[in-house]
Amino acid sequence: xxxxxxxxxALDKPVTGASGDDFDIHAxxxxxLCGVGxxxxxxxxxxxxxxxxxxxxxxxxxxxxxxxxxTAKSVxxxxxxxxxxxxxxxxxxxxxxxxxxxxxxxxxxxxKLNGYPIVAPDDPFALSFYRAxxxxxxxxxNVYPALKSRTLKLLGTPDDALAVANAVSRWDGAExxxxxxxxxxxxxxxxxxxxxxxxxxxxDVLADLPLIEIEKIGDSDPEPLPPGATQPLDGVRxxxxxxxxxxxxxxxxxxxxxxxxxxxxxxxxxxxxILYYTAQVGVRSSTLDYARDPEAAAVLRGLLRxxxxxxxxxxxxxxxxxGLTPQEAAAIRPGIIHTTVSLHGQxxxxxxxxxxxxxxxxxxxxxxxxxxxxxxxxxxxxxxNDYLVPWLAxxxxxxxxxxxxxxxxxxxxxxxxxxxxxxxxxxxVLDKDYAxxxxxxxERHAYLDPDTFTADTPCGRYQGVTDQVVMSGTPxxxxxxxxxxxxxxxEWLAR
Length: 495
Hints:
This is Carnitine dehydratase. The chain is of the alpha/beta class.
């Protein structure tokens, strides 16, 4: 079945107690891995799963989805380890812990700094639905300063939730969505899933978009990975212009398994602490005014020439303005693995729209499934798409690194947030009552506490959540855990 057929089948027959759940997680894993030329067998050992949805009371598979993303990148890492001469290994994933890794900070218990949860400031644009005058709902998730200023200007309202609600109520939902897109702000109108399947963006772009895009974009000599590795990604460098979670955590995912990940920030660039302290774990951090200072831009290009992987998740057109498109990066550094994240895909009528995790959920129908068309609701795990993106992107990066090692070449890797949301829906939908009654009950559906780690860092004593997946041979470890944002030198560590 194609993506559309899978989603329609999931909507037609939600899982109930009467129907039973015939979901085959191993088949779903091989479906993900097949897209990058791999299979479960590439681990060189057994791959096992414990537990099953529902673990949390959701219509979505919020245990299986992260379990699949985490296990896919673990199989890719295991294959890379074997490629570098290491033995095969077993991989074990406990679905009963997986939702915690999907959003480690949502309940304020597991990610902490100096004993306190990291929290976001109150904001009328933070995870709030507003009803337009025609009864449609929008989510103006504009929590970054520049986005917020443009949104308040568009709505003609002060920074107050009631004022925002009154302003939104004077608009037609679709008109406000279009006006928001034109203004460059986040303003998705909520849709049912089938309504979204009828949009041009879905029909023309997302319906046939691979979950993980990998494309060879240039020729170069083969680059075997250096010998003497103790982790799968030892000796690999990853240069990031990442922020929020979906792009930034590519660095975290790679750093956990040996890569030297360095993220570059512009002077004055804003980031929410709650996002920095989750997504930038393991990543070194530096500041360069590369957009305005030619000398800083030259330093950035010097870093690019020394890297293996480049990753970014800025709005459409940004990399073009910086001269860092896949083709331009490959000209500077033949053999580059150029990795990007988009919202709705890189083509089509919505290609320039901006947004975050929940934006993808809004347009793809997740909020309507969790609630109703008239009364939408957030999933119980507030962030469901974001972290899946870096796990899947890293899976693609590893596939490209192995191709480069044997055949050479520069590669483009791309993952779309909304395509990930659609993939989650394609895994199956659970009946609301069934999910609420069964979640958290018995051994199979228990919601277990996550495995955590602690470290003394320059930012304070940090407690974080591990990946909840156990790799018997290369479990992973961070060399850098947490550093103040932008505080390091813009240079590579010695290989």
